[in-house]
Each structure stands twice: as structure tokens, then as C-alpha cells.
Specification:
The structure holds two protein chains of two kinds.
Chain A: H1 7-11, E1 21-24, E2 35-38, H2 46-49, H3 52-58, E3 63-66, H4 74-87, E4 93-97, H5 99-107, E5 115-119, H6 125-135, H7 137-141, H8 149-152, H9 160-165, E6 187-191, H10 200-209, E7 215-216, H11 231-248
Helix pairs in contact in A: 4-5
Chain B: E1 8-9, E2 14-17, H1 21-32, E3 37-41, H2 69-72, H3 89-102, E4 109-111, E5 113-120, E6 126-132, E7 138-143, E8 145-148, E9 173-176, E10 190-194, H4 198-210, E11 213-217, E12 224-225, E13 228-229, E14 232-233, H5 234-243, H6 248-261, E15 284-285, H7 288-294, E16 299-301, E17 304-308, E18 311-314, E19 319-320, E20 324-327, E21 365-367, E22 372-373, H8 378-397, H9 399-410, E23 431-432, H10 434-447
Parallel strand pairs in B: 1-7, 2-3, 2-8, 3-4, 8-21, 9-20, 10-11, 10-20, 11-16, 12-15, 22-23
Antiparallel strand pairs in B: 5-6, 6-7, 13-14, 17-18, 18-19
Helix pairs in contact in B: 1-8, 8-9, 8-10
Classes of the chains: A alpha/beta, B alpha/beta.
The complex binds flavin-adenine dinucleotide (FAD) and NADP nicotinamide-adenine-dinucleotide phosphate.
Family (chain B): Belongs to the FAD-binding monooxygenase family.
Organism (chain B): Paractinoplanes tereljensis
Protein name (chain B): Flavin-binding monooxygenase
């Protein structure tokens, strides 16, 4: 019912903001659907601009990344993702990371994505809280939680520059589980068993919800796209996508 | 029934008629539910009413939405949030063009092709005859279902006013609002606008800025709502009352209070008092009409009885001498490609469909967009087309459950989804309350949920 009656959007629309979107386009861009990368609100589009955007564009996918607005709630972030996706020329693939995957999982109920990928999805509130308490109790207990180096990056990453760009907004919470996606897009869950933010069990649970098993990259930390081994997961994602796109047509 | 060899069998494909807003949503949602779709559009591009290059488009140069953006956009493809509260018609067209491109709908549409007939051939299938718009040969194809999204705001309903077309009675020019496109048509003329719908009010306001004299003839009093209340688009404020589930009586009282405090008493300008309660006629949203009435630029007049001796004779006995008359008397639904009984057409010409959408006796025939909501049409057309797609899917995959749903739906009281308490004119044939209507469609969708 609430699907059809959207009083909140009808009576108090989310106030618009300027959105930062970084893009790597493809010449003659019509073969592949656009990709929209959505980081959690601690990071910005920069986290994907580092490696993944260029790599995806190199493989023929026009690639875009959205910087989450400052201090938005879940509804505002979902609004921004759907607005950005709808502004692209074709039906878009949504790829969310961390709390950005939570945003994407809710955006899927508002926009019929071509496909979706949830990377290290911080979707289960209690599971991520538990994992955070183990490695970073003080950072986790703050009203504006602070992820630390150990949680985000594996040992080989030169993390100083990245850490200095992190911001610490309020924790994103969802009052209920994400509704069923519209347009039944294929959904892939990607993660690492060694992620100290999103535990392995949580990856399994999320993947099951979307009717699959998680694709795992052992040895990597939470920020897969900034890890030294960043290429392996993005290649696996694009391979999966290529297969799904052909299966559909 | 036997097959004629030159009928191309399109098997499980669905035929969609029209590529306006409703047709586009129907193609997209049928595709999402796994159907092959052939859509026929007699014009050369998408957008329907909003494509003002089309001859039959009812929009004029300065048309802006009257329903605000959040209540007008498709629920799964928002308009840019940088757009104004009430976008211009050219923005609505570009929105529909982007929607079509985004979801790759163009490849399923045959432009410049008109559907001239759709005939049931038994077991739910249809023979659809199409012809290219410029004339030329016709073609028959067989489909599993037919969904008409042909719009109901393009065939002018013209009043029959004695003497209007006789040079002896009156020498001026009379046109229907469908032929009004450009404010220049009004410049330096003495204009009489007939009809108090949103079109009539818009044109009267336009004329107030262009013409030398403007009369606005309405056959009854209406509730003229402003576009903004308390600094917000009026429809957004109204939905707040609906969200709080205030009873109709209380909303009617609030409506009167709000209009009294904003628009004020219009009978001082010679308009008749409304002969019905608030919410009993299609909403008129126009902040400028009272303004120009107050400036004497628009003169309110009653019904026009006849044209005679070079003048228009009014119901109150006055005689006026316009040289241009614009009848903004609305549009009539037209389904020339369907035998009237297929959609339960009543004597008056009003089709009788379940939820204004499903043919009662033909489970594979539906109409999308045949609604007059008190909010934007697109969200309702979207959910109608989702319901149609789920219904066809259920019928294909689980005929037993489909039959049960049909049984249950046929028992649903009409009053639960159709606004009954309205002024009984053609204008209100398809009037619905968007909340009540969406609730009913939501219930239907729930009944058709895939069993888990
Ligand atoms: C002046 C004006 C202002 C309006 N303002 C608003 C507003 O503010 N908000 C709102 O929500 N609505 C408004 N509307 C209502 C408007 O009609 C709808 O928004 C919308 O355009 C309806 O879309 P549709 O697809 O149902 O019909 P249409 O847009 O009329 O499209 C029907 C299409 O079917 C095609 N067609 C018809 N018959 C055939 C056939 N036999 N074969 C092939 N093709 C065929 C037509 O060429 C057309 O392209 C307004 C209407 C008017 C007249
Ligand atoms: N976005 C916008 O700015 C905008 C602008 C225009 C139109 N629209 C929409 O487009 C649709 C059509 O609107 P419309 O105004 O063209 O038509 P409409 O709503 O049908 O209004 C027709 C008007 O003409 C009157 N009328 C009908 N037949 C008559 C007759 N024989 N003699 C005298 N008066 C007669 C009606 O009176 P009764 O009330 O007595 O029937 C009514 O006032 C509506 O949904 C409307 O909301 C939107």
C-alpha cells in the first residue's frame, strides 16, 4: 500500500541540493548501460574515481559516482540516487558500497535498475555494530561513528590520504527492511570474509535475501575499491554484469 | 472462426494503442512483466497531449502543469528536482521523451500507424487492423491482448449554440480551445471564452493580457483554488489533509475556509456561487483569474443562449458583441477502433469499465489513462498499467487464481473507487479521488501477488 500512497514525497518533497557526480564516459557510448557507484556517506565519489570508474569505462561501461549529500537521512540519499540514475540516458546499474549499499537497496524499490551490486553492504545494523565494537569500540559508539584504518584498509594500502578525506556524518538507519525491488533486477552481493565492518554471516544473509550467494574476495578489507587488489572485484562485477545483460536479451 | 492466412499471428504479444504518457508507461510495465509489445502511435513521435507539435494536442503556448511536480511524475522515474513546482508543457514533453529513451521503449513503437479496429476472435485474442496515418494499405495482426492508451483529451466537444455558425446571425469567428495555440490569436480582439474548466480559465487569463475586452461565460459557479496555499503548492497541502485522514465533511469545511481566506468571495465580480460542495467538481486551479476579475479585465457572464443580430445573447438578457469566441467546453472520449459494447459504452457515450480500466466482459481488453484525477494523471496511469500487466501475467500463469480474482473484483462496490458525488456532466465521467483510486488498485495488486 505505502508503495502506491507516497504522502511523504507528495507533501514534503526532499529539498534539492547540488549533487557532485564524477563521470568517466565511453566514446560512442551506447553498447552498455551506465553504472552508478554509490559510496556510504563517509566517503565521496573520489573513492571510486581512484580506480574503479576508469577501469569500468575502459571495459566499455560509462561510469559515474555520486557524492552523498552532507547530513542527509536515508530518504534524502535514496532520493539523490534515484534522481541521478534517472538523469542518465539509459536504464542504470546501481552499485552501492558499505552504507551506500543500504541506500541502493532502498533505491531499488523506487527505480527499476538494470541490475544492482551490493558491495560489502552495511545493511544489517546489528551485525555491523557488533563487528565495529570488536575492532573499534570507541569509534563505533559515537553518535557520528568513525571508521578507522584497520577496518577500512588492508596493510598494503597507503591510507593516509584516504583517511584524511573521510567525513563522519550521523549513522544511516533504516526503519524497516528494504522493500522488494521494482522491475526485478538481478542483484549481486560482493564482499570479503576478512571485512571488519561487514561480517561474513551478514554477507550471506543479504545475498540470500536476493536469492544468491555472495561473491567473496578473501584477504581484502572493507574498502575493496581502494585496496591494492582493487581490480579483481571490479572485474568480477563486470563479468557478472556482462553475463546477466546477455541472459536477459 | 477460422484463420485467414494473411493475418500475422503475434502470439503472446500485447498490442498497445498510443504512445502518450499512459502508453509509454504501459509498454514499460508490460516489458518488465515479460511481455512482447507492439505499440501503435498515429503521430510521428511520443508524448501525446504534451507534444504540442501534434495537430490534436490540446496544449497552448503558456500551458503549465496544474498538478505539482511530485504529484505528477511517474513513481519510478522522477522529474529533475531542479525543475519548478509547476513545469512548462515543453518540460513535460522532454520528460516523456527521456522516459522513452531511458527504458528503450522506442524500438517497440510503430509511429505513423493508426489502429483502425480491434476485434475479439475468441479465447481472449484480438485481430488488430492498423493503417499508416497518411492512408495506404492496412494490415491485420493477432494479439493476446489489447491495451488502449489513446487519451481522452483530443476530440473537441463543441456546444451547439444557435446561430454560432451562421454568417447572418453573427460575423465573428468561433473556435474550440483545441485550436487555440498562441496568445497572438487574442491580440486586440473582443474575446468571449465559454467554459469554466482549467482550459477556459487559462485562456481567459491569457486574453486578459492580450485582448481589448474579455468575457468569461460559465454555466455554474465553481470553487477556484489558488496554485499556492501557505507557500506550498495547493495539492501538496491538500494531500496533507488526506494523509491525516480528515473526514470529507471536515475537508470541505477547511476548503471553504481556505478559499475564503485566499481567493475570497468571487460573487462580488458577478460569478455565480458554486451550486455544489467542494470536491464535487473537477478542481480548477488558477490564481490569476480572480486577479484579473478584480482588475475588470475579465467580465464574468452567464451562459450564452444564442447568436443573433450580430451579438451573443446571454442567459440574463444582456447582449454582448465579441469578435472571437473560444469554446473551452472540454473533450469527449473516442474509441472508434472498438465496437461500443466491448467497453460497455452507455447511451451517453460513457464507457463503463471496472476501475475505469478493465473491460467487464473481455479479460484481455483494458484502457489505461481514462481518468480525471484530483492530482497528476501519470502516477495513476503507471499503477493501472502495472495492474494490467500483473493481471495478464496471472491469467497466463495461473488461470484458476485469475478467475478467483476476477470474481472478487466484480463484487467490489463502484463507490469505493469512483467519485460518485459530483456534478453530473460529461466533464466528471472519469473523476476519481487519487487516494481512494490508488488504494483500490493497491488492493487489486495485492490480490494478484505471486504466491510465495
Ligand atoms: C491543457 C491540458 C493540461 C493538462 N494538464 C495536466 C496536468 O497539469 N497534470 C496532469 O497530470 N495531467 C494534465 N492533463 C491531462 C493530460 O491529458 C495527461 O497528463 C496525459 O497527457 C494523458 O496521457 P495519455 O497517454 O493518457 O493520452 P494522450 O497524451 O492523449 O496520448 C494518447 C496517444 O494515443 C495516440 N492515439 C490515439 N488514438 C490512436 C489510434 N487509434 N491509433 C494510434 N494511436 C492513437 C495519440 O496520437 C496520442 O499520442 C492536461 C490536459 C490538457 C488538455
Ligand atoms: N495544466 C493545466 O494548466 C490544464 C489546463 C487546462 C486543462 N487541464 C486539464 O485538461 C482536462 C480538460 O480540461 P478542459 O477545461 O479543457 O475541459 P473540462 O474540464 O471538461 O471543462 C469544460 C468546461 O466547459 C463547460 N461546458 C461543457 N459543455 C458546455 C456547454 N455545452 N455549454 C456551456 N458550457 C459547457 C463545463 O461545465 P460543467 O462543469 O458544467 O460541466 C466546464 O466548465 C482537465 O483534466 C483539466 O484539468 C489542465
Amino acid at each position: 500500500m505505502s508503495d502506491l500512497l507516497r504522502f511523504e514525497d507528495w507533501t514534503s518533497p526532499v529539498p534539492p541540493v547540488e549533487r557532485e557526480v564524477l563521470s568517466r564516459l565511453v566514446e560512442g557510448e551506447d553498447e552498455q548501460p551506465p553504472l552508478l557507484f554509490v559510496p556510504g556517506p563517509s566517503m565521496g565519489a573520489w573513492a571510486f574515481a581512484e580506480h574503479w570508474l576508469t577501469h569500468a569505462a575502459g571495459r566499455g561501461f560509462p561510469a559515474h559516482a555520486l557524492t552523498p549529500r552532507a547530513d542527509g537521512d536515508l530518504r534524502a540519499h535514496v532520493h539523490d540516487v534515484v534522481q541521478t540514475a534517472a538523469s542518465l540516458p539509459r536504464q542504470t546499474v546501481l552499485i552501492g558500497h558499505g552504507a551506500g549499499a543500504l541506500v541502493v537497496s532502498h533505491a531499488l524499490a523506487r527505480y527499476p535498475a538494470r541490475a544492482a551490486v551490493l558491495v560489502a553492504p552495511a545493511v544489517d545494523r546489528w551485525a555491523t555494530l557488533g563487528a565495529g565494537l570488536k575492532t573499534n569500540p570507541f569509534g563505533t559508539l559515537r553518535g557520528r561513528p568513525r571508521l578507522n584504518r584497520k577496518q577500512l584498509f588492508s596493510a598494503g594500502v597507503d591510507a593516509e590520504a584516504y583517511l584524511s578525506r573521510l567525513v563522519f556524518p550521523r549513522r544511516l538507519t533504516a526503519s524497516k527492511e528494504a522493500p522488494r525491488p521494482v522491475g526485478s533486477p538481478p542483484v549481486l552481493v560482493v564482499g570479503s570474509p576478512d571485512d571488519r565492518v561487514v561480517p561474513r554471516k551478514s554477507l550471506d544473509r543479504v545475498a540470500t535475501r536476493y536469492g544468491g550467494a555472495p561473491l567473496l574476495f578473501p584477504g581484502m578489507a572493507h574498502a575493496l575499491m581502494l585496496d591494492t587488489g582493487w581490480q579483481e572485484p571490479i572485474d568480477a562485477i563486470l563479468d557478472w554484469l556482462t553475463k546477466e545483460l546477455h541472459a536477459g536479451s | 472462426m477460422h484463420d485467414t492466412p494473411d493475418i500475422a499471428d503475434r502470439r503472446d504479444a500485447v498490442c498497445v494503442i498510443g504512445a502518450g504518457a499512459s502508453g509509454l508507461a504501459t509498454i514499460k510495465n508490460l516489458r518488465e512483466h515479460g511481455f512482447a509489445v507492439d505499440c501503435y502511435e498515429r503521430e510521428t513521435s511520443v508524448g501525446g497531449a504534451w507534444n504540442w507539435r501534434h495537430d490534436r494536442s490540446p496544449v497552448y503556448a503558456n500551458t503549465h502543469l496544474i498538478s505539482s511536480r511530485p504529484l505528477t511524475e511517474f513513481p519510478d522515474f522522477p522529474m529533475p528536482d531542479s525543475w519548478p513546482d509547476y513545469p512548462h508543457h515543453s518540460q513535460v514533453l522532454s520528460y516523456l521523451e527521456r522516459y522513452a529513451k531511458h527504458f528503450g521503449l522506442g524500438e517497440h513503437i510503430w509511429f505513423g500507424t493508426e489502429v483502425v479496429s480491434a476485434v475479439p476472435v475468441g479465447d481472449g485474442r484480438w485481430d488488430v487492423t492498423t493503417r499508416s496515418t497518411g492512408g495506404g494499405s492496412s494490415r491485420v495482426q493477432r494479439y493476446a491482448a489489447v491495451i488502449a492508451a489513446n487519451g481522452h483529451n483530443w476530440s473537441p466537444a463543441k456546444p451547439d449554440i444557435p446561430g454560432a455558425n451562421s454568417q447572418e446571425a453573427w460575423k465573428g469567428q468561433i473556435i474550440h480551445s483545441a485550436q487555440f495555440k498562441d496568445p497572438a490569436q487574442l491580440r486586440n480582439r473582443k474575446v468571449l471564452v465559454i467554459g469554466g474548466g482549467n482550459t477556459g480559465c487559462d485562456i481567459a487569463v491569457e486574453a486578459a493580457q492580450q485582448a481589448t475586452t474579455v468575457w468569461h461565460s460559465t454555466r455554474r459557479g465553481y470553487w477556484y483554488a489558488p496554485k499556492y496555499v501557505l507557500g506550498r503548492p495547493a495539492d501538496q497541502v491538500n494531500d496533507r489533509l488526506l494523509k491525516w485522514r480528515l473526514p470529507l465533511k471536515l475537508r470541505q469545511w477547511l476548503y471553504r475556509r481556505t478559499l475564503a481566506l485566499t481567493t475570497g468571495d468571487l460573487t462580488r465580480y458577478g460569478l455565480p456561487a458554486p451550486d455544489h460542495r467542494p470536491y464535487e467538481s473537477h478542481p480548477i486551479v488558477n490564481s490569476q483569474l480572480p486577479y484579473y476579475l478584480g482588475h475588470g479585465r475579465i467580465k464574468a457572464v452567464p451562459d450564452v443562449l444564442r447568436f443573433a443580430e450580430g451579438r451573443a445573447e446571454l442567459a440574463d438578457g444582456r447582449r454582448i458583441d465579441p469578435d472571437l469566441v473560444i469554446t473551452a467546453t472540454g473533450y469527449a472520449p473516442r474509441f472508434e477502433f472498438l465496437a461500443p459494447e466491448l467497453i460497455g459504452t452507455e447511451e451517453s457515450g460513457r464507457p463503463d469499465l471496472h476501475l475505469h480500466a478493465f473491460a467487464r466482459k473481455h479479460p484481455t481488453l483494458a484502457v489505461v489513462g481514462l481518468l480525471q484525477p484530483d492530482a497528476g494523471l501519470l502516477p495513476l496511469a503507471h499503477w493501472q498499467s502495472v495492474a494490467v500487466a500483473r493481471w495478464l501475467q496471472l491469467r497466463r500463469e495461473d488461470p484458476v487464481r485469475a478467475a478467483a480474482v476476477q470474481q472478487k473484483e466484480s463484487a467490489r462496490p463502484v463507490s469505493s473507487w469512483s467519485r460518485r458525488q459530483v456534478v453530473a456532466t460529461r466533464r466528471h465521467w472519469f473523476e476519481v479521488d487519487h487516494i481512494a483510486y490508488l488504494k483500490s488498485v493497491g488492493e487489486l495488486l495485492r490480490e494478484m501477488e505471486p504466491a510465495t
